[in-house]
Structures are given as C-alpha cells and as structure tokens.
Hints:
By secondary structure, the protein is an alpha/beta fold. The chain is built from 13 helices and 6 strands. The chain has a 6-stranded parallel sheet with strand order 2-1-6-5-3-4, with helices on both faces.
Amino acid sequence: MLKLIKKVSDLPREEVNSFLDRSMKEQKKVNVVTANPEIIMHGTRTQEIYDFLLGDDTLITPDGIGVVKAYNRLFNADIERLAGVDTVKDMLSLINTEKRSLFVYGAKQEVLDKFKTKLETEYPNIIIKGLFNGYDHTLEQAHDYAQDAQADLVLIALGVPRQELFMIQCADINKGVFIGCGGSIDVLSGMTKRAPKLVMKLNLEWLYRIAFKPKRMKRFWDNQVIFFLRVYKLGAKKND
Length: 240
C-alpha cells in the first residue's frame, strides 16, 4: 500500500492542468485517477488495479482527504486536496477554449441529458464525440466507441473500481486524457448538490455523503476505516 500512496501526485492544481494540457497537445495518453481511500484499497486487493495505478501513464491526484492525510503522515509532506470535480471543470474550460473533443461514459441518461444542455450553453466550443450512459452500454461497447472517437478528453463516471477497469480496457487507445470522475457529472449537471462550503472546508464531505446515503456505511467501513488502520500501522513502523 505504501507504493500506491507514494504514487499520489504532489503537484498543485495549476501544474496538473498544465501537464494535462501539454499531454493533449502532444497527443499522449494519460489516465487520471482521482484517488480516495477506496481505490487505494482496491489496488491492494486486485493485482490488475495495482499494476494500473503504478503504471507510467497513470496520474493519481489526491481527491479524498483520507489520501491527503495518509500521504502527509507517511512522507512528512504537506500536499493539498485536489477535488476530482474541480479537475473536470478545469479540463472542460480548457477543451472549450481550445475547441477540443469530449467523450463521456457513465452516469444515468437523465444526468447526461442535463449535462449535454450545460455543455451546449456553457462550453459551446467543445466537440461532443459521444455521451454514453453507464447502464445501457457495456464496457466493451463504450471501449469500441471511445476507440473510434479518439477524443481529447474522456470522462468516465462509473464509480470505483469500474471506471479504473474501463481505463485498463482502453489501454490500446494511445491518445487522450482519461479521467475517472465518479459523481462529478452528477454534480456538474445540477442533479446532485455539492456539499456546502463549510462542510468542504472542514473536510467532512464523506460524512455529508453518508448522511444522505446511509447505505454507504458498509463501503465506508470496508475501505476508509481499514485504510486508516493500515496507514496508522505503516506510520508506526516508519517511526520505530
């Protein structure tokens, strides 16, 4: 697990954006994992995901506050959280300015319909190559379309770990910035409200989500709690 946490980027928001912009211009492939403790835990359980996370073309950004705390504790650092939804917003603004292309896979159809309206009104220069919901299209179908589309930006809103598995499946596509963005499309479409600013400032978005979706509690225990226990043990070993 230590290797996975160490792979998390310490670049500030502006430098991440510059790197992704440069990758698009040079038509290089980048997989962006907006990491929370859950995907790190999946990496410890599944070799395929572990190898993907440590791959040369994978950029892991610190989306979850748990990942930020773990990194800072284990490596005596002071990185800051970079919310996945902010990275997505920055990339949408970028490709709108540059008149680049977009492909989206995931979320419900009603969410994508609202998101399309938002794109057409707020980002009119984006070339939409496709908006595939995550319910009526298989990973294989979406892969084939993404391969044909060759979009500059690919947003995958399937949740952990399906969005990472999709990026693994798209290893044969050699250009584009692929971002596993979880519920970002729901937020940007207006279908889901982001946590209040005070909640975000206190780093309590995880608690806010559980309050509205109590079914998340098991996932929270299986991933967040166990993650923190393992980080604590790793930190104790380093200090021995």
